[in-house]
């Protein structure tokens, strides 16, 4: 019997916990810390004008580091700032249908808010580029939420569409998230609650993933 090779999960940064002050410098430092596949830019309560300014500052920093910049729930903003993708957070199948039809494959189209297996499979039938398991701002405890881990593990076993699983408030939870088989692990508060250490925390997250990969290969 031949076992499928284990795919190394990559980090995704979610800006929910990132404040406006010094955001570009913090993001630059975080991205310099190691491998990051993409950054999901969350309005997190900002009005449309404030969010556009926030995204305008971050997108070039993100893209210069070789990561994809994905804007949450605002297609106009995504277009104006030259983002690489759009993320729909509302768990709305119709909106996801429309976004995939309109923007794919020119832009990355991802989604979250589908919290049951049935709803997640319905969303998967729309063929987004990924599904995200976890609620923005939901990383309130140090370990990843058990429901997020369970959904990601179930999804990764049966569906080819990649998934992102939200880890917890502590970077040490990255290992548990990686063990689900998810292609991507998202961090928000773990990185941006300590902006002065953002680069070191991203480096630590990658080291945890590498250590887990080594243990799987042993």
What portion of residues belong to β-strands?
A: 15-25%
Report the total helices: 9
Report, as a whole number of angstroms, the end-to-end distance.
17 Å
Would you tell me which CATH topology applies? TIM Barrel
Shape from CA axes?
globular
- The strand line-up of the biggest sheet is 1-2-3-4-5-6-7-8
The major sheet is characterized as: 8 strands, parallel, barrel
Residue ranges: pLDDT <50 for 5 or more in a row? none
Average residue pLDDT: 95
CATH class: Alpha Beta
CATH homologous group name: Aldolase class I
Helix content: 40-55%
Please state the oligomeric state of the protein chains shown. Answer: single chain
Q: How many discrete structural domains?
A: 1
The computed structural class is: alpha/beta
Number of strands: 8
CATH architecture: Alpha-Beta Barrel
Backbone CA Rg: 16 Å
- One letter per element, helices H and strands E, the order comes to EHEHEHEHEHEHEHEHH
Domain Thiamine phosphate synthase/TenI: 23-190
Enzyme class: transferase
GO molecular function: thiamine-phosphate diphosphorylase activity
Pfam family, one: TMP-TENI
Description:
With 218 residues, the protein is an alpha/beta fold. The chain has one domain (10-217): Alpha-Beta Barrel (TIM Barrel). Helices cover 44% and strands 16% of the residues. It is built from nine helices and eight strands. The chain has helices at residues 23-32, 48-64, 75-81, 93-103, 117-124, 146-158, 174-178, 189-192, 198-217, and strands at 10-14, 38-41, 68-72, 85-88, 108-111, 130-133, 163-166, 184-187. An eight-stranded parallel β-barrel has the order 1-2-3-4-5-6-7-8, surrounded by six helices. The chain is globular, with a radius of gyration of 16 Å. The mean pLDDT is 95. This is Thiamine phosphate synthase. Residues 23-190 form the Thiamine phosphate synthase/TenI domain. InterPro entries: Aldolase_TIM, ThiamineP_synth_sf, ThiamineP_synth_TenI. GO terms for molecular function: thiamine-phosphate diphosphorylase activity. Its EC number is 2.5.1.3.
């Amino acid at each position: 019997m031949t076992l499928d090779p284990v795919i190394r999960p990559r980090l995704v940064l979610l800006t929910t916990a990132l404040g406006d002050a010094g955001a570009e410098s913090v993001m630059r430092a975080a991205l310099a810390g190691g491998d990051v596949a993409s950054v999901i830019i969350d309005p997190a309560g900002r009005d449309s004008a404030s969010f556009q300014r926030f995204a305008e500052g971050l997108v070039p920093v993100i893209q210069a580091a070789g990561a994809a910049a994905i804007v949450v729930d605002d297609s106009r903003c995504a277009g104006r700032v030259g983002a690489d993708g759009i993320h729909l957070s509302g768990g709305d199948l119709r909106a996801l249908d429309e976004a995939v039809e309109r923007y794919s494959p020119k832009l990355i189209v991802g989604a979250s808010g589908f919290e049951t297996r049935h709803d997640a499979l319905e969303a998967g039938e729309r063929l987004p580029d990924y599904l995200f398991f976890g609620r923005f701002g939901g990383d309130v405890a140090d370990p990843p939420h058990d429901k997020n881990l369970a959904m990601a593990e179930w999804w990764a076993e049966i569906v080819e569409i990649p998934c992102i699983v939200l880890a917890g408030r502590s970077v040490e939870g990255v290992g548990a998230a990686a063990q689900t088989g998810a292609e991507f692990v998202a961090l928000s508060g773990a990185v941006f609650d300590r902006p002065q250490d953002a680069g070191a925390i991203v480096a630590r997250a990658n080291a945890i993933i590498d250590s887990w990969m080594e243990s799987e290969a042993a």
